[in-house]
Design goal:
The chain has about 60 residues and is an alpha+beta fold. The protein contains two helices and three strands. The protein has one domain. The chain has a three-stranded antiparallel beta sheet, covered by helices on one side. It is globular. It binds zinc ion.
Length: about 60
Amino acid sequence: MRLFECGTLVPGCEWHTRADSDAEVVRRAVDHLRQTHGEETIRETMVENIKARIRDDAPQPAEQ
Ligand SMILES: [Zn+2]
């Protein structure tokens, strides 16, 4: 699994997401940034920032 924690990009935000692929993690993170942080336009640099912060995560069966 791949993990992205929004707090690495937006200090203080507790939101995080896990997915099988980086592409899915990025898609969910972009949705979150739009809806929660009011980022109406997600720039390429923002996507790069998200990708740079995605890391491997052990499977979490309880959350599936
Ligand atoms: Zn957030």
